[in-house]
Records
---
Amino acid sequence: MKANREMWGSKLGVILAVAGSAIGLGNFLRFPTQAVIHGGGAFLVPYFISLLLLGIPLMWMEWTIGRYGGGFGHGTAPGVFQSLWKKNRFIKYFGVIGIFGPLVILIYYTYIESWLLGYTFYSLTPKFQEALATGQIANFLSGYQGLEKNQFFSSLIPAYLFFLVTFFTNFAIISRGINKGVAKLCKVALPFLFVMGIILVIRILMIDGISTGFKFLWTPDFSMLKSAKVWLAAAGQVFFTLSVGIGVILTYSSYLKKTDDIVSSGLSSVATNEFAEIILGSSIIIPAAFLFFGGNATVEIAGSGAFNLSFVTMPIIFAKMKFGLFFAFIWFLLLFIAGITSSISLIQPSISFLEDEFDISHEKAVKIIGLFCFVLCHIPILFISKGVLGELDFWAGTFCLVLFATIEAFLFSWVFGINEAWKEIHHGATIGLPRIYKFIMKYVTPFFLLIILVNWIIQEGIPVILMHNVAPENKAYILMTRIVLLLIFFILVVMVKVAWRKRKLSSDS
Ligand code: PFF
C-alpha cells in the first residue's frame, strides 16, 4: 500500500473536479441527440425518473465506497470492492471493469475532444467560411475525419496534430496530480465554461421566433414512453452524463478524508451537471435546429450520426447570425473545455491503480499509462470508417456502465449492508439524506438496474454480439477491436492477481 496518498485540498476542489468529469461532451452533444431521437420533451420524463432513482443514489454510493476504500489505500474498484466484501476472493476481478471502462472510453473520447480543438481553430479560418458559404460543411467534417479527401483536407495530418496536442495536454494536467492538476484546472475551466454557455443561450434566445423551437422541447410526444428503448436510453444518458457507474467518481472520492461531507458535495456535483445539461445543453442545439430545419429534418439529422447536430448543424445555424463565426468559435471552445475536464478523470483510475497496487511513483505511472493509451488511441483514429468508434462506445460507454453500476449497487446495499452504508454516507455530513433514500438505495436502485441490464442484454446486447447491424466488410475490424478489448481486460485481470499475490506474500512474511 502506498504510504502517503495525495488528498483533496478543498471541498470546492473536489466538487468541481467531479462536476468537471460529469460536464462534458455528454451534456452538449449526446444529450440533445438522445432527446431529439427519443421523443423530445417526452425523453425528459424517463430522464428525470432515472436521475432520481438511479443517478443521484449512484453518485452518493460511489462517493461513499470510494472514500471507504481510500481509507484502506485503494483508489480503484478491485481494491474498493474487496474492502467492501472481504470474504469473497472473486469480487476484485469484477472491479477490473472500473479501470477497463474508463480506459476504453478515454481512447475514443480524447479523439473526439481533439476534433473540437481542431474546429475551434478552423472556425476562425477562411476555409471554414468557404465550407459554410458553399453548403459543404458536412464534407468539411468527413474531410477532417479522413473519411474522404476533398478540397478542405487531403490527409488526416491536421486531425492527427490536433489529437497530439489534446492527448499531451491531458497527460500534462494529470501528471501534476489531483490538486495542482485536476482541481486547479476545473476551478478555472468550469466558470469559464458556464460563462460561454450562458452567452450562447442568450444569443439563441434572441433569435426571432425561437419560441417555436422551444415548443418542441416542452411539447412531449408521450407515445414514445411505451418503448423500453426510450427508458434504456434515458438511464444510459444519466449514467454517462454523471460519470457514475464506471469507477471514475469512485477513484476521485478515494482521495477524500474520512470527515469530508459526501451528502452535500455529491448533490452539488449532480446539480452543477444538470444545470449544464438541462439548461445549457438542451437550450442551444434543440430549439435552434427546430426553428431553422423543422422537426422532421432535425430528428433525421440527429438519427444520422451522433456528431451531425453539433459539427454540421450548429455551424450552419451560427452562419445565419451576425458575428456567427465568433459564436461558432465559442461553441467549439466550450465543448473542448468541457471535454478536457472529463477526459482527465478517465485517465485517473489507471494511474491510481498502478500507484496504489504496485507502489509505482506518480511520474512513472503517468508515463506507462500515457504510452499504453497513446498506442490504443490509434484504433479509433485509423479505423473510424469501419465503425470502430461506435463499437468502443457500445462496450465501454453503455454496457460496462450498466453492468458496473448494478454490481456496485448490490455490493453497497446488500453486501456491505444498507445500515452500515447509511452510517458511512453520513460520516462528516452536515445535512442528512431524506430517509426515503434508504429504501430507494436498498430496493429501487439495484433492482431497477438489474431490470435495465437484463432488458438491455435481450434487446440490444444479443444482436450486437452477433454483429447483426455490422456491414460485412467491417466485420473483421469489429472482431479485431473486440479481441483487443478482451486482451486489455485480461491484462488487467492478471495484474490484479499479481498485485494481490504480492500483497499476500508481503503480509505473510
Ligand atoms: N460525463 C462525461 C460527459 O458527459 O461527457 C463523460 C464521462 C466521463 C463518462 C467520465 C464516464 C466517465 F467516467
---
Amino acid sequence: MLKDTDCGTLTLSDVGRQVALAGWVHRRRDHGGIIFIDLRDRSGIVQVVFNPSYAPDAYRTADALRNEWVVCIRGRVERRPPGTENPSLPTGQVEVHALACQILNPSRPPPFYINEDTEVDEALRLRYRYLYLRRQRLQRNLELRHRVVKFIRDWLSARGFWEVETPILTKSTPEGARDYLVPSRLYPGCFYALPQSPQQLKQLLMVAGLERYFQIARCFRDEDLRADRQPEFTQLDLEMSFVEEEDILNLMESLFTDLVEQVTPHKRLRKPFPRLTYAEAIAKYGTDKPDLRFGMELADFTDIARQCQFEVFRRVVQQGGVVKGFAAPGYADCPRRQIEELTTLAKSKGATGLVTLALGQPGLSLEALTPEQVRSAVARHFTIEQVQEMARRAGARPGDLLLIVAGEPATTNAALSALRTEMGARLGLADPNQVVFAFVTQFPLFEWNAEERRWESAHHPFTAPRDEDLPLLEADPGRVRSKAYDMVCNGYEVASGSIRIHNREVQERIFRILGYSPEEAQKRFGHLLEAFEYGAPPHGGIAPGIDRIVMVLANEASLREVIAFPKTQSAQDLLFGAPSEVSEKQLRELHLAVVHPETAPSGPPPS
Ligand code: ASP
C-alpha cells in the first residue's frame, strides 16, 4: 500500500509516529517560507507542514502542488504549536511534518470547489459526478447509506430472513407507473419489462415456501420525477408468510428503532411509532404522509361556516364542501407579504383562497377576546363566539394566526397540508435532528379515476380487502377498506405494504373491478392466479425506500444527494449521456424502427 494511515484518524495519541499518507490536496497555503497543505482522503483531513530547512526536497515538490493533485507523503505526527489548534477538525490537535512527498497524479483545476460545500449548478454536478462525490458531505452520505443497508441485511438475517435475487428482465408488474421496456432480439415485437418492484416475484417466493424473504431491490418506474423520486430507486423489499398486519408493523418498528438508535444515535427518535388510520391522517393533517415532528393539527369548521355571515363559506358548505383550518402559534403579527405568500401557496394547490384571522396579542385570554382584537379582512362576518370556537378547536391562543381554507375536500386538505408544512419550516418546528416514523393504516382499496371513469388500486391489485368489507366489493368499491399500510417519516412516505390476496377467486374479483376481462387477467397474471391454486400461504409484506430513508437520516432535501449516480429531473444521466441513440445495426437486430414524434425534437436530449 502507498499509505499506512488514514488522514482523518490522526490524534494526539499518534504524536511521534512516522506515517505514510496518500490522498488529495484539499487546500494549499504558502506562509512565507513554509507550505501547509490539507491532505484529504476518504476518512477526513489532516494538515501537513513542509519546512525547507528539514526536508528541502519535499518542500520543493510541495511548492508545485495544486488543489486535487494526488500525493503520497511520509512524515512525523507532531502536536500543533499552542494557539494553532483547529477545534472544528477531528485531527485539529496535530499536524504531520513532511519528510518526503511524491506526486502520484496532477489534476486539472476542477470545475467547482471540492473543498467548500458551495452550491453547484445541477448540470455541472451531475456531469462531473466523480468530482462532486469527492466532497466530504457526499462521502458521508454514501457511508451512511452503506451502513444503513448493512445494518438491515444483518438485522434481517439474524431473524431468519433470506436474501433472494429476482430478475430484472421480467414482465410488467404494475405499481401504478409506466414500465421501462426492453425489446427482445429473439422474439420480434416482444418486450421484457423492468420490474416496478419485485411484487409478484416475492409473492411467488411465499408460494414456494420461503416464508421470510428480503432483497435490497432496484425498482424502475417511468413517471414524472420530483425531488423525492428517481426513475430507478432502491427498496428493502420484504415478504413473510403466516402473518397479519400487526406482525409486519411490529417488525418494521423494531427494525427502524434499532437502525436509528445504532446507526444514527445523534438523532432523537419518537417511540413508540404513532399509528393512525388513513381517515384520521386526512382529517388531522390533510395528507396521508404527515410530518409529525410538530402538531398544528387541522380542525373542522364546516358547521360554524354553515351559520356564519360569510357568503363565500356558506356557499362552499351548501355545495358539499368543507371549511378547515389550523393555528400557527405566535404568528398573528406576521407581515402582510408573508400572508400573501401563503395565499399563493394555497392557490397553487387548487384552493380558491386563504382566510386568516389574527387573534389579538399573546398574554390575553381567549375568553376575553373582543371583536376589535381580531384582525382579518372577513372578521365582521363572524361573531366573536364563532371566532372563539374556531380558535378552541384549533388549539389556538391569543397571538396565534388562524389559517382557514374552504372548498371541495381533496383540494382543501391538499392546500392545508402544504400550508402546515410551510408553517412547520417557517416556525422552525421541523427539527432536522428529530425522526418521527408513523404507520398509516386502513387505506381505501380503490380510488376512482374520474378522467378515465374507472376504479384503480390505491396500493396495487394484489392487496387484500379487509374481511369485513368483502361483501361491499362489487356493490360499493369506494367504501372497501384494504389491508394496506404505509410507513411515513418526517413528511415523506418511506414504505408501503399490505397483506396480500392468496386466493384465486378474490384476486379474480379484484381484477374484474379494475376493468380486466377474464382473458386479459389470465394473459397478464395467469402465472399468479395459477400459483394461488397450489396451496398459497397467507402472506404479506412491505417495501421501505432506502433512498428516502437515507435522505431523511442524512438531512438532505434531494434523493440525488444520497445516490452515487443519480439522474436529472428529466431522467437523464449527464455523466454517460444516457439515454442516447443507438446504431442502425442495433435497431435492426432488435427489429425496431424509430418514429420521431412531431412534437419532440429528434435525437438524444441535449446534455
Ligand atoms: N410492491 C410494493 C411497492 O413497491 C410494496 C409492497 O406492497 O410490498 O410499493
